[in-house]
Task: structure prediction
Amino acid sequence: MTSTLLDNIGLLVTNDPAHGFLTAERENAAIVFEDGVISWVGDAGQAPPADERVDVDGRCVIPGFVDSHSHLLFAGDRADEFERRMSGQSYAAGGIRRTVAATRAASDDDLLERATLLVSEMRAQGTTTVEIKSGYGLTVVDEVRSLVLAGRLTSETTYLGAHVVPPEFADDPAGYVDLVTGEMLEACAPHARWIDVFCEAGAFDEDQARAILGSGQARGLGTRMHAGQLAPSGGVRLAVELGAASVDHCTFLSETDIEALSSGNTVATLLPGVEFSTRQPYPDARRLIDAGVTVAIATDCNPGSSYTSSMPFCIAVAVRDLGMSPAQALWSATAGGARALWRDDVGVVAVGRRADLVVLDAPSYVHLAYRPGVPLVGRVFAA
Amino acid sequence: MTSTLLDNIGLLVTNDPAHGFLTAERENAAIVFEDGVISWVGDAGQAPPADERVDVDGRCVIPGFVDSHSHLLFAGDRADEFERRMSGQSYAAGGIRRTVAATRAASDDDLLERATLLVSEMRAQGTTTVEIKSGYGLTVVDEVRSLVLAGRLTSETTYLGAHVVPPEFADDPAGYVDLVTGEMLEACAPHARWIDVFCEAGAFDEDQARAILGSGQARGLGTRMHAGQLAPSGGVRLAVELGAASVDHCTFLSETDIEALSSGNTVATLLPGVEFSTRQPYPDARRLIDAGVTVAIATDCNPGSSYTSSMPFCIAVAVRDLGMSPAQALWSATAGGARALWRDDVGVVAVGRRADLVVLDAPSYVHLAYRPGVPLVGRVFAA
Result:
């Protein structure tokens, strides 16, 4: 066990509720951590001795990003579809089936190699916790395979057999729901922490979503949902009613949806990369925050609707187009993501929490939005 | 002299007009260069022998980005102003004066160190040619100093004494124009290739712009102009009339402006980072391209209205929000920038041109927009 002192932090974002609201910043700070756990947080120059000392020379240090929504287990890419969309074709959930075909045909090694590369890419951009969904397999064998491979990269694995109805069940969607809630669930549950469903026209309706998440809950899985991406629906309210950890997208929300979110415990996870990459209107994060809803930001990294792995990029767009302040966006990309995963060991810099820390090549986290696209993530420490 | 072979290029963008319109792509290509100059372009596996062979393993290779508009010689930052703007305050040219005060107070070493860091940051993101303007000095001594320092980083130096009227001339703008076209020009011209003027309400009007650019032309400098950033004006037509190499911003254009641009030789340089960072409406690049106007994209890297140094980011925004196809955006960020600087040795991959080459960690340049924010620039070769 080696202890490390991170000294001369110009600006430290702790997100520690004990130190005030939101990002809870402190200037001229220092941190000591040992064996991946923070053991001391205080003023620069006051730290207890440590085996190693890293002088960050006035830079800003933030908690590692918590990317609570990604689809990294896939093969193929859909650059051609993106190019056509940018020429005016609109996004539809059907493109997912193309990735399903490529993923089924890929070897384990290929899938794992690609996902590992994306996780490394994320890490280099400051993401220290990532959730990974299945959902491009859609057979018992392929869903289990995706979850087993995802489990080699993260503990936040999500069973998304209910991504879309696969072609072979096109005439029997009810039969597919039976599979998802029956044999496939039994096989996948041991490898998943969460169950998720894409509740949207073209995917699964509210009754199906209720059955799917209910079956997962009964099997001991936490629940999450994709809803409100392409149009408002009852999905958001259903997620709150079922006590889902998070409802993701929330591009289209009614007043009733916002009331439900503000009275419940479900995090609204916004995915600005999706609206950026599909030219959809952006969700109004300020309206949610003003209503007291807990908001997270995630990449939704996937080859169809958002192939970014960059949390800094998502923060920049959230500030520019979702109406968030830089502090709100940073909180949502760290502590907010942690809440969306029911985690209290990450997203916060405090004694006893994981030493997941990002040193920015900038004096403030504001630069993540002020300097969009610029790789500002310097050294990354991850437990 | 060592020759280098870049082999197994999956997709090579040449921008070579001899090979068709726009990006003129070829698959499975190879390049040989020697002493910074391209000596051979052809099919993979067919190249003549070279001293060194670099296998890029099917990746995409593009010409280095030509960033034809930046303001890198400055001190201080304006993150606080950016944060206030994101809370609803609108952008005004007046903030420039804050950077002027900080720049005047800075040492040569400090200014050069900061600019060098930004040029390195740009290089790591694929920019191999950059134009740098003065304009935060606004005294004879400080403008000369900025140009001399800029000249240590690039041959594309631009005299922008006419950025704004400095505070000490607030009551005598005509006196400042006399200085800019007289003593300051005399002192600066030996260190500059270009003269530029910010023709906009709050900066310089059209008569002043005409006098300023005219004086520079008489002194042998090429001309360029900032116009149409905050409102339509006669600046764009004036730039065309004077034969300026480029008129930059073009956020607000009238039909008459577009007609003038399409009948003249002046490039319209769009700066998507500015609209992103000031929440202004985006210019309509497609309308310009359809009218036959030559369009360039640049970062406008500066601490006030666009602190990005990332051409890939600007490309992603140009595709999402300016209506450009990925191919048009790439062309504009390479060959378009070269045209805006009257350069034919860069922006194109062809025998005899500079070996400024970027290897992307992607199979296609489409990924620059398809994977926004992700650092996809791998190895960069620059003459």
